Amino acid sequence: MPKKLTTEQFVAKAREIHGDKYDYSKVVYTKMHDYITITCSKHGDFLQKAYSHLNGRGCSKCAKEESRSKLIFGVAHNDCDGDSHTNAYIHWRNMLARCFDEKYKKESPTYTNCLCCKEWLVFSNFKRWYESFNYPDYHLDKDILVKNNKVYSPETCCLVPPEINTLFTKRQNDRGKQPIGVCYIKRSGKYSATIHKLRNVHLGFFDTPEEAFQAYKSAKEIYVKELATQYFQEGKITQRVYQALMEYQVDITD
Questions:
Q1: DSSP for the chain, written as a single string
Q2: DSSP readout, 126-182?
Q3: What is the per-residue pLDDT across 40-87, written as a single tens digit (0 to 9) for each?
Q4: Residue boundaries of the structural domains of the chain
Q5: Whole-angstrom Cα Rg for the chain
Q6: At 1, is the pLDDT very low, low, confident or very high (cuts 50, 70, 90)?
Q7: Using CA atoms, how far apart are residues 161 and 168, in angstroms rounded to an integer?
Q8: For residues 216 and 227, is the Cβ–Cβ distance under 8 A?
Q9: What CA–CA distance (Å, rounded) separates 151 from 61?
Q10: Mind listing the pLDDT tens digit for each residue in 11-48?
Q11: 155 FRET partner, CA 20 to 30 A, in 69, 121, 125, 146?
Q12: What is the pLDDT of the chain when averaged over all its residues?
C-alpha cells in the first residue's frame, strides 16, 4: 500500500507540476480526495481536490482567461464572454474562415486573397459595428459597396437581406467557362441566358456567349434596381447600400 504523503511531500509534487505558479502556504494535506486551499497570485484562494491539482488542474479563473485569450485561426481574439452563439459571432467567425482558413479557401476559391482589417480581428469591435444596424437576420457582404473587394472592414462591408445577398452569387462551379448568366447548350449549339429571381427565368437562346451575356446583363441590372428601390422604400437597406445597388453594373468578367 502506498505510503501516505505528508503536506510537504504533496507540495513538492505540486511544484513539480505547476512550478511557482501557486502559493501552497495554506495547504493542509490529508488525502487525495479532500479539498485543499491553494492561493493564485492573480485571483486569490481557491479550493480544489488534491488529486485534481496533481493531475494538472489549477485556478479555474486563470483557465477561463487563458481560453478566452486563445487566438482564432491564429490571428483573431474573442474578447466577449457568452457570445459564441450570437448572429454577430457567427458572422465574425465565418468572415475569419474566409480570410484565414486554408481548407475553407481551397473549397471556396473565390475567397482567395481575402483579408480582414486589424480592427475586426477583435470580436468586440466587429460586434459593435454589427449591432449598430439592428439587422439580426441579415448577411454580411463585402462586394456591394466596393465591387471585387477583398478586404473585410467597416468601410467596405454592409449588412443586407438574404435576397439581396444572393443577387451576387456567381455560381462559377455551375457555369464553367461561360460568362455569368450564360450556359452552352451542346445539343443545339446555342447559348442560353438565365437570370435568377424567385426562380430561374430563361431569357432566350443566342448564337454567341457575348449576346447571351448582354441579355443577362440588361435583365440583371434592371432587377437589381427594382429590388433596391423596393427594399429602400420599405426601410430595409441603408442609403449607402441603395446607392451602390442603383449604380451596380454587371461585367462579363464577373
A1: -PPPPPHHHHHHHHHHHHTTSEE-TT-----TTSEEEEEETTTEEEEEEHHHHHTT---HHHHHHHHHHSPBTTTBB---TT-TTSHHHHHHHHHHHHHH-HHHHHH-GGGTT-EE-GGGGBHHHHHHHHHTTT-TTPEEESSSSSTT--EESTTT-EEE-HHHHGGG---HHHHTTSPTTEEEETTTTEEEEEEESSSEEEEEEESSHHHHHHHHHHHHHHHHHHHHHHHHHTT-S-HHHHHHHHT----TT-
A2: HHHHHHTTT-TTPEEESSSSSTT--EESTTT-EEE-HHHHGGG---HHHHTTSPTTE
A3: 999 999 999 999 998 999 999 888 777 666 789 989 998 887 778 899
A4: 7-66, 70-160, 161-254
A5: 29
A6: very low
A7: 12
A8: no
A9: 36
A10: 999 999 999 999 999 999 999 999 999 999 999 999 99
A11: 69
A12: 90
Cell of 167: 443577387
pTM for this predicted structure: 0.68
Answer for the pair 166, 188: CB distance below 8 angstroms, yes or no: no
What is the amino acid identity at position 28?
A: V
Cell representation of residue 193: 441566358
* Spatial CA neighbour of 92 closest among 167, 168, 159: 159
In Å, what is the CA distance from 225 to each residue of 93, 145, 237, 245?
31, 15, 13, 6
Residue type for 232, please? F
Instruction: Output the nine-digit C-alpha cell for 44.
Output: 486569490
Grid cell 483573431 in the structure block, residue: 76
Predicted local distance difference test score (pLDDT) of residue 113: 92
